[in-house]
Amino acid sequence: xxxxxxGWDRNQMAARAARELQDGFYxxxxxxxxxxxxxxxxxxxxxxxxxxxxxxxxxxxxYDDEVDPDLINAGKQTISQLPSxxxxxxxxxxxxxxGGHIDLTVLGAMEVSEGGDIANWMIPGKMIKGMGGAMDLVxxxxxxxxxxxxxxxxxSPKFIPACTLPLTGKNVVDMIVTDLAVFQRPDHSxxxxxxxxxxxxxxxxxxxxTTAHYLS
Length: 216
Fold this sequence. Notes:
The protein is an alpha/beta fold. The protein is 14% helix and 22% strand. It is built from 4 helices and 12 strands, in the order H-E-E-E-E-H-E-E-E-H-E-E-E-E-E-H. The strands form 2 sheets. Strands 4-3-2-1-5-8-10-11-12 form a 9-stranded mixed β-sheet, sandwiched between helices. The relative contact order is 0.17.
């Protein structure tokens, strides 16, 4: 699918996901588009960002003259610290995640199934750096939002009846934000519902580019 004036761009997708934040939330952001959520936290809201490599309280992305090469997030991007930032071991970080102390995670995905399964860590036959913290995040965090392009580069749907790639987690996704639409479900036994359509996009276009069953 060629990107044209229709739909949301990457920053707008991140901004839409950021509307799900609530004051006082502890939030983990995955690599890719989700990192842009950090620059879209609503004004006046206190949200503490956690990185699984051992940092709680992540500031905005630094300007070039402010870069500290020792300060990176789990995606190896340089970040900034805040007066309230704390540092700890990776083991402590995953204890927070596995212990249910993170309120929300925003992740990218290669595929999401209509039953809320997510595949986001590997494509067989392609080089991978490892699964990162994704499996722990989808198992231990209270709310899971996936932000991804609606279709792959070859045009194939990414919101599909059943995932074809190795799963990261089963029945864990609560919301999907794509460049075309937003799908949400109130619990893990209910189908996803189309709750928002991006500017310039029609419901018919979404239906044509989606193979997963959803409520409209």
